[in-house]
Batch of 2 targets.
Target 1
Amino acid sequence: MRNGSTNQSGKILATSEEFVPTAFHLPGELPALPLDESEPVHWQVAMKRAIRSSQQLRKAVGLPPDSAEVLLPEGKLAGERDFPTFAPLEFLARIQPNNPDDPLLRQVLPLPDEQVEQAGFAADPVGDLNALVSPGVLHKYEGRALILTTSACGIHCRYCFRREFPYQQTGSRKEDWLPSIEYLQNRPDIEEVILSGGDPLTTTDEKLNQLISALENIPHLQRLRIHSRMPIVIPQRITEELVKRLSSSRLSVWMVIHANHPQELSESVLLRTTHLIDSGIPVLNQAVLLRGVNDESEILAELCRRLVNHRIQPYYLHQLDRVRGASHFEVPVEAGLRIIESLRTVLPGYAVPQYVHEEAGEKSKSPILDNTREVKS
Ligand code: SF4
């Protein structure tokens, strides 16, 4: 499977035309929204028919096109050159039409704001490249290592901290994963492997099976954690075959999904995550605090409620990683602390996620705490 191509500036596009050829070239050929999620197409078909340009996306959700002044001659916004639009219809079906402020739309719609240069926002905000210890392996924290399983994703989130990650130079493109396996074999101190990317579940069941089998053959590994947004954006990716493979692994398998807003949790999403949980795979959720998406305590409380009602643990609420092109999503830390404080008053403790940020070079994620709070003994 191919995943990624070099664009004019030499960077890697996460989910390229080459990897997932477009099935529908004209906006007029798209299936009508809302989709009938009770009869899902195969997840790879869902990838192929995903929307791939901001103007096509605007049309699909009933918005007027951008004005000609902000568009490049090819009809795209400048931010799409390095990080193209990619939005599956399954996700768009949960968007309210004709609403430019829809919280799901904001996550996928490129804006001219992405061109605003902001001090402190960089291409590699969490120091991934310094943690690259072998092609395709990031090793930041004790006992755990992360495999860049693939460069492809099932959606392109405009705030993504890896939106400029040079996947091609990091070796994650080959998908034989041999350098990653060799690194892990030689590190008996590592007990947990995280499959990340890109999104590991854009890899076929067959390839995933090969990778998981190779990991199972490393005796000192105990746990396998899969970080994926696919269960949210294209829930039919949770195939029966995948669930069987994960639940029969000799490793303890944990699934970490990524939903930011309660509107993302459709019936179909919850059916599939419940199936995972019933099959013995714990499911956790991480969210990113995003301006105009979920920066209100009522919204996050509703997200957490829906998660725990379906036995999904709210795990992390991330402060935005300061990646270039995403400054318009940033919420001040003080506002984030107020939201967390409010969540504590309306939810049980286990339903409140840890509010964290990642700093390059640190030995773990850092909890964001309100230092003005009185500590009671
Ligand atoms: S946030 Fe996750 S799913 Fe979204 S573009 Fe980044 S890696 Fe892909």
Target 2
Amino acid sequence: MGQPDAACYASFWGGFATLPQNYAPHAAQVTQALGTERGEAVMFLDDGSIYLNGKIVFVSLQRFRHKVCSGKVCFLCADENSEPTKEHVIPDWILRKYSLYNQSVTLTNGTRYKYKDYVVPCCWNCNQFLSKNFEKPISEVFEKGFEELKSYLISGEATRVFCWLALIFIKMHYKDNFLRMERDKRIVCGSIANDLEYDWGEMHHAYCLARSFFCDASIDYKALGSLGIFRIKLDSKEREQFDVGDITFSNTFGIRIGEVGLIACFGDGGAVLYKLNQLFLQKLHGPLNFPQFRELIAQFACCNLHLKNPPRLSTLTDKILGTVSIVCTKRDPEPIFYEFKPEILGSLMTTLLYSLMKNNVNIPDFEMRLKQGEVSFLFGNDGNFLNNE
Ligand SMILES: [Zn+2]
């Protein structure tokens, strides 16, 4: 059995447990300009964006919706003068490491798309920036395995990793602006993002996090959200050691790379981790297999959907100092959750697991029971963790 959390799990930003005074109300993106004007490098653009020291440090929701999501500008700098080339949605080092170029990702509409073509518009400078600040340092730590990554997070690099996850999450959804809902060209349809009615207001915070290194923003760690790292069981029979699962409407994202699984909720102020720690995370005392990791993504997403009082998240710009900060403010001392609805978990579990597991399980009425939230790969009927070591 061993220590409950040492072997496979570490948590960050269970903010409510230790810092409830910093918790805050309903999610809304607010921009304020502080200080008196010195005037040299600050410009307020017509769409509410803020230009400071040669770059757009705050991309307003309007600009995000109409300029960035239309693909006319580089998705990172959002500058009209940018000359976008291409940036892989799933980082190039991951595609190389697991020979994924000719494999396919499953899109939100259930269709498949080749990883090698899964790219977004990004200018050369921004591409280099992302490589230097995210892909290079993070890939080097991943190369060294789970323990090294855990130490990396604990040593103060959790913000970098969290913003990197926000970046991939945003790129995946942003790309859906340019992919047809229906592959059959004879069918009249819009983009996946349009037809599934993505809420860009809800995703704007993750976008701001993804850009935070680019605009040198300081981030209140509670403005990040929940992050868990889990050890994944390596299985020689596996087709690939890479997996990605996201739940659009609950701002939840999970990625598995080798023996490391990371799950993030964006903008919940740490509420999800706080709650799941109380419920069961400490019981996970062994490495997770594929369906267990996917179930955990569903649990994070489900918990976020049940959160009644998410925090208020703001981007503040100080014109004098030329700084940007992303902060989280308080409404209630404790997170409050709606009464648990098992069918919500069931619906998320079905999305993440049904088609991949239907031929691999021996569970009567699997589809129906999965939908009703009655199937668990993590815990047995006695509530104990199903250790697969
Ligand atoms: Zn750019």
